[in-house]
What does this fold into?
Amino acid sequence: MFRDSQGNRMINITFVSHDGQSREVFAEAGSSLMDTAMYHGLEGVVADCGGACSCATCHVYIDPQWVAQLPAPDEEELALLDFVVAPEKHSRLSCQIKITDKLDGMVVRTPQSQY
It folds into this structure.
């Protein structure tokens, strides 16, 4: 973790595409994982609803070692996850994950269905 020129805490996140290509980006603490993906122009996070937790097109897979660092999904998120293509045990909606210092180094995979 480091601070940008304005003093904002920047957290390192690695996104891995369905075909194994990885891209390391920096996220501002307090932003959402979805906003981070959109800011950096990453494919695989569509985010049709803009973060309103109403479409599930920001579906991602959280690397198992990072799951315990996240709050559990609420009922609204769980209901939407029932409709994603190819859900996995660690599926989450990236709009519902807030970036915190303890996520520095987190690895996230994007599903093939969103390309």
Q: What stands out?
A: The radius of gyration is 13 Å. DSSP finds two helices and six strands in the chain. The mean pLDDT is 94.
